[in-house]
# Entry
Amino acid sequence: MNDAAHLPRRRFLQLGAAVGGGLLLGIRLPALGEEKPAGSIGAPPEGTLAFFVRIDPDGAVTIGSPQPEMGQGVKTSLPMLIAEELDVDWARVRVAQMPMGIQRNTEGQMSWLHVGQGAGGSTSIASSWQPLREAGATARQLLTQAAANRWQVDIGSLSTEPGAVVHAGGNRRLGYGELAAEAARLPLPTAPPPLKAPGEFRIIGTPRPVVDAEDIVTGRARYGIDARLPGQVYAVIERCPWLDGRLLTVDDKAARAVPGVIDIVLIEGPAAGEPYTVLASGVAVVASSTWAAERGRRALNIRWDRGPHAKESSAGLRRRMEEALAASDGQVVLDEGDVEQAFAGASDSVEASYYVPYVAHATLEPQCCLVEVREDGATVIGPIQMPAAASRMVHQLTGLDRLSIEVQMTRLGGGFGRRLTVDYVAEATLIAQQVKRPVKLQWNRRDDLHHDFYRPGGLQQLRAALNDKGEVTAWRQRLASPSKYYRRDGVAEDGMWESELYPDDPPRRLVPHLRLEYFAMQSGMPRGSWRAPAHCANAFAVQSFIDELAHRVNADPLQFQLRLLGEPREFPYEQHGGPIFDTGRLAGVLRLAAERADWGSPMPAGSGRGIAGHFTFGGYCAYVVEVTVTDGKLRVDRVVGALDCGLAVNPNHVKAQMESGIHDGLSTALRLRITLQDGRVQQDNFDSYPLGSLADAPRVVETYLVDSGAAPSGVGEPPIPPLAPALTNAIFAATGQRIRELPLIDHIDLA
Amino acid sequence: MIQFSVNGEAVAHTGDPEEPLLWVLRDSLGLTGTKFGCGAGLCGACTVHVDGAARRACVTPVKTVEGQAVTTIEGLGAQGLHPVQQAWIAEDVAQCGYCQAGQIMAAVDLLRQVPNPSDADIERLQTNLCRCGTYTRVRKAIFRAAAAQGRTPATEGES
# Structure
């Protein structure tokens, strides 16, 4: 989606003098050799930070973080990359969130002003690893050159220590602040300076706390919900609860009479079948406070047309999935070898089906956005994963020049993929256009659960052939699901039914005969990306099924899977996190988790261990889960995790993301589902969509990182997919009960 | 008019007496550290103290705090960081951070009720929801704060 996604990856640094004579250093990806933008937004106003590095004359260092922070830790880890090569004392670094920066060249092409901005797909660390270290190294070189000039010595005779350039021979030392003004006047080096070897790192690879920790614990941290502009009004929207339903009539007399209500504004719903701008038809109440708007909303009297999906239900969709899998062959995603012949000649075969439901993102901060639309431009402040998508949406709705649309990213109270889409930005913009004042739109929890881009549910049917040595010789996997690409902006009609099977996932190339089929199901539910999208569903099916096969041949599940993975090999991998899938790294995390969990040691009656591993977004993760089932009630006692994400830039937050994957994976597997009845979502709040609580959390959680030496990959998503299958495999080990459907609450009581 | 105090300062609310305390704090007083998560008292993101006890502000009509003393996250550490806030920093609990003000206000009340909590006490009393899954560190931070307040933590598992 990035404006600059197709531009050459040529690195480009910009330099400027800060007010008062400091150094500002920026980095950007230019449009096709265009050096001077014709215009831009998000550039630093005099004396304020928008570039990556700012050094003030007093030595204070401010580093900009370009990406949205939603809990994944990039506001800490990305500046660590710069600080490492700049060579400064981390304790003295201040980090500032950068706004969206875009520019246009003289031919009208848009590109990023600094770097591509947006958080999704666990890409921030991997894509920033090289350019941000180079930015830091360049700033360090300029400061060193400034010192060389001052002292009239060769730059080769100088070195740095945190925050200063030193001349060992001359016993001289100058702080960066004393050199910043001179450094800002020097020409940029023609090539990026050499970077440190990993053995020289002082910051990268060391555990660092959240840079905003004190602001968070004192309530000062700013989220979208906290944004304010002078003269703002508050808005809430009553949306049609039926998918693609329409407004028939609204009687707003009583609502307008509520004290504080300023205006009532109609929001036109999405055109059926077309990409979503907003998710639903609605009636917005604009008022002087959130509460007045909410009271006005309750006083509305609305009649809705129930739209084209008023008969859709989750039970019906499940039935259609079963019928589709029973009736015919699906769209062939992959067909290698001769699966039919292999099954015909097999000594044994196993078949099982696995089901996952729709789930919601349920960010704890409900959707919200503050938008001001003026004659000459717009300001958008909110919890946004994709700022350029917000900018394009405002442009599309208002016709305003994109360089007049300012987008500020606050901290996000959770993202999980929900805020890759900007429907709530669109709503706030439509209201702001009409009331001509800054509008703060606030969703409530029911709005959020009823109007989401849900993670699709699906039914998978797996069948494997086994030879007399207990080896898998053929594998057939068929998935029936409504594709997440449905009505996605920029996706052509035929792409809206794209498969959610990832053909390069194991067991590709591990099993000689392999066939994957996809059945695209029709559903009126809006769908989208939810943390490690289809990997959660696919890992649940594949890792459960491998466990079933192991038990079928009386093999230890760990040994069975290691044997399947075989010798360490690198295979091409074209989906998320490629281009390489390394069987040895997956085996490595399985072994590490097993070893630390004392895999194979005896357990008391009623207790059991399960193991599962998965590769996605460049990371390899495995869990061993230990459970006890007492009087039919499940308790998760312990989770031991192993992760190989390459070099861990901030091991503290890598481990935090593993803990997050464990608790989110558990919460989702235990109780979460979104169901549809008569075209309406049935879950209203956290009583009917019960997020896991601390009482559900295992008392023992252990996380281990593989020191692999590989380049770093993101960790927001890899730690979630293997949790659910490790859990159900553990339940099987403890009880002999094989649970093939989520959530578990339908099949087992919880302690 | 409804009179009460917030973080030691006198406040008079002249609007709707049914308005939840949450929105009075956020919209009228600009105290945005108290967060909105569910509006039904289910998640605890809006937890404040009323006369020293934890209360979920989203389901607390402002008229019910007449004459009482409300403390928000902004007021908790007014005299320097509270031991629970310090423990939250030391354990680096926050991910997105949105629920943490409420978690901290709930934990302060938990330690007021049970200065020396066991795992089971924490599981019973710390019911605030965290979507990011920081529970492992929330638990550790509560034990750390309990220890810092001069008491020895209970044996794990004992209730």
Notes: The radius of gyration of chain A is 27 Å. Chain A touches chain B through 64 residues (CB under 8 Å). DSSP finds 16 helices and 34 strands in chain A. Chain A has three domains: 12-204, 226-308+363-450, 314-359+453-750.
